[in-house]
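Following up on my earlier thread - several people asked me to post the actual chain instead of describing it. Fair enough. Here it is, all 140 residues.
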Amino acid sequence: MDSLAEVLWFLVGGSAAGSICNNTRMDREALYKGIKLFNGSQFFEAHEVLEDVWRVAPAAERKFLQGLIQLAVGLHHYSTGNVVGAQSLLARAARNLSGYPADFAEIRLDILRRAVFGWQTALEHGVPPPPLPRLERTEC
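Reply from S.P.:
Thanks for posting it. Predicted structure:
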């Protein structure tokens, strides 16, 4: 474990980072639906589903879900031409996703964080962004 969030997660009853398939207590069915919507570029709809998961999630998982929601809303803002709103939400998403293990809730956060950074960099420099981030699932 290499971050305070990972240590705290373990102390409140979560699993060590190596047990990625059982390291959350959130509603997996709804999470999977949100992932599918996100990966289908239905960002507004994904944010609504993920908000429902967030509302009832244990405290240790809420910041992670908030990061996913902010990312979805940021990408929705970008799709409607609101670059400033997208930049703001991508920055908040990056902060909220930063304290979790590389693989969390069956999502490859290491890959996602790199994608978010690429988007932040592109928007900051006014260049076309890279391909849309995807919520890649881990293999269990």
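The beta strands are 103-104, 107-108. That should answer part of your original question.
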